[in-house]
Amino acid sequence: MLLHLTAVDLQNTFRDFSCCIDRLELSFDVLNRIVSRGDKLISAQLIDEQAVIDLPIEAFDGVSVMKLITALEREWKSVLEEPVPARIKILTALLVITNKQLAVCEDHIVRIDSLLSRVKSLLQRSQRMNIPVDAKQALENNYQYTLSLYQRQLDRAYLTRQRLLQTIDSLS
């Protein structure tokens, strides 16, 4: 997959960058590292085969997610490498992993909800702006589009949360 981004560096210079990255979490880490250096992301897209995915740049706060993902990967690999344990050990491990997934999902819901609130306030502010009608309409359309994207992400996150809760119930 190809990661393409535009950022403004500390000298207020626009920078375009593209690179091939084979793991999704690595692309997230690259974006978080850019933010942690003090640069400002303007846009970020993942391009894979024929799909282009615009990433929500507000989600990248400069905190690396690689350590968490690597720890989780090590944990499930160690579970898979063990000889086939008793059913209870498997269920317990699945329950632990599912609870961690649920925590990540709930954190994701909070972040998306926060982004939705921020974009809603920006939309309200744009409606009060004294700018030409065409520019105002374009700005409002952009905010409406962004709101719909975040709302779809929030809906998917709630659906994922519901499925995780059902899985936890079935494992308990």
What's the arrangement of strands in the largest beta sheet?
2-1-3-4
Structural class: alpha+beta
Q: What would you call the shape?
A: globular
Largest sheet features: 4 strands, antiparallel
Number of domain units: 2
Portion of residues within helices: 55-70%
User: What percentage of the residues does DSSP assign to strands (E)?
Assistant: 15-25%
CA gyration radius, whole angstroms? 20 Å
Oligomer: single chain
Low-confidence stretches: none
- Distance separating the two termini: 38 Å
What string, H for helix and E for strand, traces the elements in order?
A: EEHEEHHH
Q: Tally of extended strands?
A: 4
Annotation field: number of helices: 4
Whole-number average pLDDT? 88
Descriptive notes:
The protein is an alpha+beta fold. The chain folds into two domains: 2-59, no CATH class; 82-171. The chain is built from four helices and four strands. The chain has a four-stranded antiparallel beta sheet with strand order 2-1-3-4, covered by helices on one side. α3 (87-128) runs antiparallel to α4 (133-171). It is globular. The two termini are 38 Å apart.
